[in-house]
Amino acid sequence: xTAVEPQxxxxxxxxxxxxxxxxxxxxxxxxxxxxxxxxxRAAFYLFTLWAAITINFFLPRLMKGDAxxxxxxRNRTVSPEAADALRALLGLDTDKTLLxxxxxxxxxxxxxxxxxxxxxxxxxxxxxxxxxxxxxxxxVGFATIVSxxxxxxxxxxxGWRRGSRADALIxxxxxxxxxxxxxxxxLAIAVFSVNLKWFPIGKAYGVGVSPEFTxxxxxxxxxxxxxxxxxxxxxxLGGWMLGMRNMMLTVLDEDYITVAxxxxxxxxxxxWGYAARNAVLPQIxxxxxxIGFIVGGTIVMEMxxxxxxxxxxxxxxxxxxxxxxxxxxxxxITLSVLVANILADVAYAFLDPRTRQTEx
Length: 360
What we know:
single chain; 360 residues; two-stranded antiparallel sheet; 15 helices; 67% helix
């Protein structure tokens, strides 16, 4: 007597189109929290944070000279007694070993004390960074997000309509991305600031305007930041569009795209629900790194447009050998990159259910 194989209802059978794609939905009742995966990622990021902070401490101290020597080179009228007092204030006259200084650095760091900046008149490093960070995040962050969205959506459409006139956008945007940014910025200033006088030449706001939350000040910030933001978008648009377009061409040759089209699904659903959703996955990691390095600023942009930001702050601190300020800026950049990568992991798992199902 042969056993009768149980019949699976037709409604309970998985759709062949849904299997193996990021559109796959998790089976209810079988999902569980991947504690092993989360623990491994947490350990990895904690180790990375420790390594970055350790390098952040030792690297400036391997440089020749110190902040006081650089300060004396710029101000030769400082007396030897004043120079000794500055070294004592900055902790440069101590006979402690690097290991002891490393332990004290961690103790101060856990208390939120990043030291004082000699370059900025012995002001706390946290105060100096907090004044420059919003400008960088507001301008470069906004421009990076807009560039990513336009490039990704545009690349998906161009890849979907391959062989059409839309392909002409790829060489145009790629050519604009190959132009050196300083040349693109100077060209924009010459055309739109000097000749047409549509935008100011530089700075974050006009002379005589007090930085306060008023309509006049907000209008000044937007007016001064439009030209730098547009140049950043133009300079980075080609990479996002080209990358998304190439991934779309790869995804469109997959079998599940052919099956979706054969089943008569709407073109919009196939484009955004299947093709673009899979093609955007490699873009997520690149976007996370771009978001993380936003706080590093765009040094060239800040120099061309005389814009205040963290990038120029880091450059000045490096030239002045201002250890405390250098370490503070590096720490902010490190934390931003780590947080951006954590968010990228979460977004990747959300967009690709296969990731969290496999890890579970």
